[in-house]
Design brief:
Blueprint: H1 3-8, E1 14-17, H2 32-44, E2 49-51, E3 56-63, E4 66-73, H3 80-91, E5 98-104, E6 112-115, H4 124-133, E7 140-144, H5 156-163, H6 172-192, H7 194-201
Helix pairs in contact: 2-6, 3-4, 6-7
Length: about 210
């Protein structure tokens, strides 16, 4: 590996999951980012606790010889960027070292999509993150949640009900497996960089088993 190639490897230093705080939103589709951070915290034995300075639940530890920080903003989805900005300012982290994990209706359940940059794609949490970080070129991991069946175009009420609803009994085992894969994917990001993880995990599908 050349020195130029090494300098281009993106290793996340802050991993953020997007969601809404409170029991009302717990385990909903829109909170899959929170669930991913909880799974990473369990796998890495990192304790998460509320930190008012960061406006979120925060924890830090070591993984793959790297210092890693986990964050669940408690600002509500539309203001997620405030919490992310507070952490990177305190630790003086480059915005490009932030990996954000969140839900995506345009991907089916069982699909992940890791990217080094991109737009918000209509996701309010990502709109806030981009606004507060001042750029779009930071890595993000989208977790597919699928779309509601038989929803007419522009049916906002059905869409909101869907994303704020919980996964059903058939979906829950897939979600469990997806979160396991998320841990593997993020660990590869830390070990070999985001681009290597993209190559391995973007083509992978976790299919719903039929009865």
């Amino acid at each position: 590996m050349t020195e130029a190639q090494a300098s281009q490897i993106v290793i996340p230093q802050l991993i953020v999951g997007l969601g809404n705080p409170g029991p009302k939103y717990d385990r909903t589709r829109h909170n899959i980012g929170f669930a991913a951070i909880d799974e990473l915290a369990r796998a890495w034995q990192i304790n998460l606790s509320e930190n008012r300075k960061y406006q979120g639940e925060f924890g830090e530890g070591q993984k793959q010889l790297n210092k890693v920080r986990l964050l669940k903003p408690l600002t509500y989805m539309n203001c997620s960027g405030q919490s992310i900005r507070a952490v990177i300012d305190w630790f003086k982290l480059p915005p490009t070292s932030v990996l954000i994990i969140y839900d995506d209706m345009d991907l089916p359940l069982g699909k992940l999509r890791l990217r080094l940059s991109g737009s918000a794609g209509g996701h309010n949490g990502m709109k806030s993150a981009i606004a507060h970080l001042g750029l779009q070129n930071f890595p993000r991991l989208r977790i597919g949640i699928g779309k509601p069946q038989n929803a007419a175009s522009g049916d906002d009420a059905k869409t909101i009900s869907y994303v704020l609803g919980q996964f059903d009994a058939k979906e829950s085992p897939i979600v469990t497996e997806v979160l396991n894969v998320v841990v593997d994917c993020v660990e590869l990001c830390l070990k070999q960089g985001v681009e290597q993880a993209m190559n391995r995990y973007n083509s992978r599908s976790i299919l719903v088993k039929s009865d």
